[in-house]
Amino acid sequence: MEVRLINNDLVLDAIVDNPISNDGDEYAFYLMLHNEKVNEFWYSSHRHIQFPLPDKAGQYHVLCFHRNVKRSEKSRANSNRISVTPAIRWKIPQAVAIGRYKQLIYFRRVIFGDYESQKRLGYIPRVGAAPIPLLVPMNYGPRNDRNIEFALSSWKFLAPIWKVYFSSKKYKYLKELYTFFLDWNQSLEISNGKNSFAWYDMAVGTRAMHLALFLYVLNEEKIELSTRDSRILGDIINRHIEYLENEKNLKYNNHGVWQILGLRLLYWSRNETSQEKIDFCEYQLSKLIDLNFTEENVSSENSPFYHKYTADLICQIPTQLFAQTQARITAIQDKKDEISAWLTSPSGYFYLIGDSDDKGMLLKSKISCDFVQDDICYISKAYLGSGYAIVRTHPDTPTDDNAALIFHATSASYSHAHSDKLSFVFIHKGIELISDSGKYSYENDKWRKYFVSDRAHNTVGFTNKVFMPTDTNLGDSHIFECNFDNGTYYLSGETKKKDVLFEHKRILSFKPDEYLNIVDHIIHKCEGVGDIEVRLHFGIDISLQEINSRLVALFDNKIIASIEPDSRLLQYEIYSGSENPILGWSSRAYKKKKPINALVMRFAPDLTEIQTKIHLKASRFFNDNLFDDRASTLGRI
C-alpha cells in the first residue's frame, strides 16, 4: 500500500494507491506535523480524502491505517513528506470559540444535516441520486442533471458543515467552509460561464445566506482574515450584493424569498446602516408576498406542496429584520397548516396538482359536517379566490370509506404551473380513482413537456393541439362554486385560452357513493385542431376494461366504478405507458414514472356540451369475480 500527500493550494489530498483492493477495505488517515497529529479522517471506504490546509508551516505527512474486518487484515503506511506554507491565514485571538450566537435562528435554513454521514458517503443532492464526493476542485457544472447542478451551485452541501461547527465550535470546520468558498470562486474563472446556475436566482440567494453566516461567525469570534483573503471574500460578497440589489434579477416566488433574505442578512452581517438599502428589502418582500399569496393566504404557485414549502419559508423569515411585513407574515402563519391540510388527500400525501409530491399534513378533527350519509360525515372547503374547491370525508372516517374530490383552477402565476385548469382528483372508498400525473422533473425535455401539458391532466382539449401552461393568461381561470344541496355537491369553474377562441366551463356534481357527473361546456373557433377530447387519468392501481360494451374501472380485480361517456362519443382509446404518443404516465417521485390508464374520449369539434358520468355503486350489481355471468348487467345503474 502506497500513500501520497499532495498540496493543491486549497487542501491537502491524501491518496492511497493499493494495487490489491478487496470488498470491505477501509482506511483511516492522520495528518501529522512531525510527530503531532493535527487532523484525522476516520475509517471509511474512501481511498482519496482531503484535509483543509493547516495553519502552521512545516513538514507534513499522512499516516494511513488500513483494515478489512471480513478478512482480518490490518496494515499501516506513511506518505511522502511535503512542506506546507499556508495560503489561507487566520488571526484567531483565542484557542476556544467565544461566540454567543444570539441571532443564529436567522440562519436556520442553512444549518442542518449529518456531517459524518456526508463525509463518509458523499453529498446526496436528492433521494435516489448518486453521492458526490466533496473534493476540491468541485465540478459545479455543467452537468447532465440540472437539479444537481442547481443544488451544488446553491452550496446546499455546506449545511452539515455549519451544523457540526456550531455543535463542536471547532475552527477547522470554518476553514473547510472557506475552502469551498474559494474553490467555487476559482471554478467561475475556470468554467468561464459554462455553469448556467452560477448566477441563478435562488442559488445566489442561498449562497448569500452562507456568506452572511460566515461574516457573522467571524465577528462573533473576532477572527481576522489576512489582507489577501479579506479582499477575496469581500469581492465574492460584493458580487452577490450587486446581483441581488438589481431588481431585474429578483423572482417573486419562493426563489425570491431566498434572494431577499440573503441580501438582508448580508446587510445585517455587515452592519449596514443605509435606510434606503433596508427599505429596499422590506419593499421587495412585501411585493413578493402580495404576488405570491392570495387574500386567503394560499400560495399562488399552483401546487399544494409549494404552498406548504413557501408558507413555511415565509414564516421562518426573521421579522426583526422585516418589521413592515410582520402582520402579513403572521396572517400566513395562522392559516398555513390548515390550508396545507385541506390540500392533502386522505392518504396523507399532497394531491398531485402542479409540481407536487411528498407527504402533506393531517386535517384536524374539529370540523362540522355538511351532511351525514350512511354514518359518514362529509365536509368541504372553498378557496375560491385561490382556485381550489375541496370535498371530502371527515378525517376520522375509516380508510376504506374515505372519499375526496379536489377541483382546481389556480391562475395567479405560472410558477410550478401545469396546463391543468378545471382538472380534478377523485378518491372513492379510499382508492385514488381519478388521479393526476405529477411533476416528473424540472428538466426541459420531452417528458417534462408532457407532464405539464393538458394531455397529462383531466381536462378538455383537442386531438391535434397541445396546450401548455402559458397558453392561458393569468387571471383567466376561476372556481366560482362549491355548494351542496340534498346530499349532492356542486362545483363549477371556467377557463379560456389566449390567442385562440377557446372557452371552457365545467360543472361537477358529486353524490357520495352514487356518482360523479362531469358537464363540459365548450365554445371555440379553433381550426385544424381535430376532435374535442375529454381525458381522464386513473389511479396507479386502477385498470380499465370494456365488458358488454361498458367501460368499467377495477381495483384488485373488483369493479368499483362504471364510466358512461356522452352518447355522441365518436371513439375512445385507453393509453397506458405509451411513448408514441406519450400518454398514460404518473410520476410520484423525482424522475420516476409508472404507467397508468389514461382514457381519451373523442367528440365532434362542433359540440358545445359534453357529459361524462362516473357511476360509483357498481359493487351492488356485480359479483367481485369478473368472470361471473352477472357482469352482463354492467352499465344499467
Briefly characterize the structure.
This protein is an alpha+beta fold. It contains 11 helices and 32 strands. A hairpin with a 2-residue loop joins strand 27 and strand 28.
Q: Any overview of this molecule?
A:
This protein is an alpha+beta fold. It has three domains: 2-84, Sandwich (Immunoglobulin-like), CATH 2.60.40.10; 97-245, no CATH class; 343-633, Distorted Sandwich (Beta-galactosidase, Chain A, domain 5), CATH 2.70.98. Strand 20 (502-511) and strand 21 (515-524) form a beta hairpin. The protein is elongated. The termini are far apart.
Descriptors:
637 residues, alpha+beta, Immunoglobulin-like, Beta-galactosidase, Chain A, domain 5, eight-stranded antiparallel β-sheet, six-stranded antiparallel β-sheet, disordered C terminus
Record the SSE blueprint.
Layout: E1 2-7, E2 11-17, E3 26-33, E4 36-44, E5 48-52, E6 58-68, E7 73-78, E8 82-84, E9 90-91, H1 115-121, H2 146-153, H3 159-168, H4 171-191, H5 201-221, E10 224-225, H6 227-245, H7 254-269, H8 275-292, H9 304-315, H10 326-342, E11 371-373, E12 376-383, E13 388-393, E14 404-408, E15 423-428, E16 431-434, H11 446-452, E17 460-462, E18 478-485, E19 488-497, E20 502-511, E21 515-524, E22 532-537, E23 542-547, E24 550-555, E25 558-564, E26 571-576, E27 578-579, E28 582-583, E29 585-589, E30 592-595, E31 597-603, E32 609-615
What is the straight-line distance between the termini? 78 Å
What's the alpha carbon Rg, rounded to whole Å? 30 Å
Under the CATH scheme, the architecture of the largest domain is Distorted Sandwich
The helix/strand class is: alpha+beta
What is the domain total for the residues?
A: 3
Mean pLDDT: 91
Instruction: Flag low-confidence runs.
Output: 618-637
- Portion of residues in beta strands equals 25-35%
Structural shape: elongated
CATH class placement of the largest domain:
Mainly Beta
Counting DSSP E segments of at least 2 residues, the number of strands comes to: 32
CATH topology descriptor of the largest domain: Beta-galactosidase, Chain A, domain 5
* Helicity level: 10-25%
